[in-house]
């Protein structure tokens, strides 16, 4: 499922998307970062109808020019600070490499804009905390691009958890594993720009879904290990994205971790771009005192009438990658315009970043580490 989404993210760069105009729009939006992920934002925003993308920012001249021409965005900038002082947008969408999520978001918030930033929220919990503090001071909305919590399967399991279907959750297992799926575009292999590898890039999605469903308990301890064994060498195996830049590759290929929460629950995490497994895995499973569940395929495991039963939904709506983006951006627009609750608030981004940071710190230290309360 996740592989198809990523392939869609690349293939959609060749398709035309609707244009945006400022006429009668309630929210003036600026896009900071015009790479592949921004295309999903543009198609989603085009269908919402309460916004207009009025400015774009990218340090790459050719990327910026192509984006402006493609989407009929009149104002283009190479410097986001100049854009903020010139345009004064209502909303800023941050679609940059991870290194810039915090500085761009903070600058936009200080300029009076509401912000939705792509995942991960930032490179460290301290950055996340500063972003949240700035948003509160400026009385602006700050959302995180956790679109998978809007997936119908996630929503089904969240409703079941809220109804007490699972009882207290004791164990969650998260898997974001590719057999050989190292991205060969962007800066995914550079730790200084991304903060890490598959754990922070794809593990973050499955972790946030699971944490959301289990009720968002506070993480208190982390342990983990990481390995680099293939991405930093020439690839001689045919795969879906060959030819990545192995010479600049300094991220992990495989991360394994465990998080302990203040309610006694445990989350186990496996994330990899390159793993010798049968097939790609994009899933989480949970086990509670009254029942359990899996995300893919969505099922609930419990007892009924003195019998162990597996409950499979007779119907769930289908939602592709663009549909997920539409759902998360609709929620963000409603939060800004109507003061609706944010389904993916900054506090959720901070909690996930604490877990990711804890696993990386544990791997470096060779022991379990504490996750301090904030």
What labels describe this entry?
374 residues, alpha/beta, Rossmann fold, Dihydrodipicolinate Reductase, domain 2, 2 domains, nine-stranded mixed β-sheet, six-stranded parallel β-sheet, globular
What does the secondary structure layout of this molecule look like, with pairings?
Elements: H1 2-11, E1 27-32, H2 36-48, E2 51-57, H3 61-71, E3 75-77, H4 80-87, E4 91-94, H5 101-110, E5 114-117, H6 125-138, E6 142-144, H7 152-162, E7 169-177, H8 191-194, H9 198-213, E8 219-227, E9 254-261, E10 266-272, E11 281-288, E12 291-294, E13 299-304, E14 307-311, H10 321-338, H11 346-365, E15 369-370
Parallel strand pairs: 1-2, 1-4, 2-3, 4-5, 5-6, 7-10
Antiparallel strand pairs: 7-11, 8-9, 8-15, 9-10, 11-12, 12-13, 13-14
Number of helices: 11
Helix content: 25-40%
CATH level 1 name of the largest domain:
Alpha Beta
Q: Write out the strand line-up for the largest beta sheet, numbering strands in chain order.
A: 14-13-12-11-7-10-9-8-15
Poorly predicted regions are 1-23
Question: What is the third-level CATH name, the topology of the largest domain?
Answer: Dihydrodipicolinate Reductase, domain 2
Largest sheet, described in full? 9 strands, mixed
What is the SS-derived class? alpha/beta
Task: Provide the residue-averaged pLDDT.
Answer: 94
Number of strands: 15
Report how far the terminal alpha carbons are from each other. Answer: 35 Å
Principal-axis shape equals globular
Number of domains: 2
- CATH architecture descriptor text of the largest domain: 2-Layer Sandwich
- How much of the polypeptide forms β-strand, as a percent range? 15-25%
Supply Rg.
Answer: 20 Å
The CATH superfamily name of the largest domain is Dihydrodipicolinate Reductase, domain 2
């Amino acid at each position: 499922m996740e592989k198809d989404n990523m392939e869609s993210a690349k293939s959609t760069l060749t398709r035309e998307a609707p244009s945006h105009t400022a006429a009668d729009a309630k929210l003036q939006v600026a896009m900071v970062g015009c790479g592949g992920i921004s295309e999903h934002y543009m198609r989603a925003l085009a269908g919402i109808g309460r916004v207009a993308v009025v400015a774009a920012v990218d340090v790459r001249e050719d990327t910026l020019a192509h984006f402006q021409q493609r989407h009929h965005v009149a104002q283009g900038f190479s410097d986001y600070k100049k854009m903020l002082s010139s345009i004064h947008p209502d909303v800023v969408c941050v679609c940059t490499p991870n290194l810039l999520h915090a500085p761009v978001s903070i600058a936009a918030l200080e300029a009076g804009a509401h912000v939705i930033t792509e995942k991960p929220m930032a490179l460290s919990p301290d950055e996340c905390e500063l972003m949240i503090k700035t948003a509160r001071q400026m009385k602006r909305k700050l959302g995180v691009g956790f679109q998978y919590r809007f997936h119908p399967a996630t929503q089904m399991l969240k409703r079941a958890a809220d109804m007490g279907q699972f009882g207290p959750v004791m164990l969650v297992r998260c898997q974001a594993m590719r057999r050989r799926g190292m991205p060969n575009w962007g800066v995914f292999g550079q730790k200084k720009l991304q903060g890490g590898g598959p754990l922070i890039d794809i593990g973050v999605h499955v972790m946030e879904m699971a944490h959301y469903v289990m009720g968002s308990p506070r993480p208190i301890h982390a342990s983990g290990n990481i390995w680099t064994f293939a991405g930093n060498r020439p690839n001689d195996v045919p795969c879906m994205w060959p030819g990545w830049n192995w010479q600049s590759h300094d991220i992990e290929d495989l991360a394994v971790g465990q998080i302990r929460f203040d309610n006694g629950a445990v989350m186990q995490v496996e994330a990899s771009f390159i793993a010798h497994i049968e097939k790609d895995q994009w899933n989480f499973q949970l086990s509670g005192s009254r029942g359990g569940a899996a995300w893919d395929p969505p099922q609930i495991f419990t007892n009924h009438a003195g019998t162990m039963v597996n409950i499979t939904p007779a119907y769930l709506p289908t939602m592709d990658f663009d549909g997920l983006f539409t759902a998360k951006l609709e929620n963000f627009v409603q939060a800004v315009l109507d003061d609706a609750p944010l389904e993916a608030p900054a506090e959720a981004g901070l909690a996930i970043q604490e877990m990711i940071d804890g696993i990386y710190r544990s791997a470096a230290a060779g022991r379990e580490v504490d996750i301090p309360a904030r």
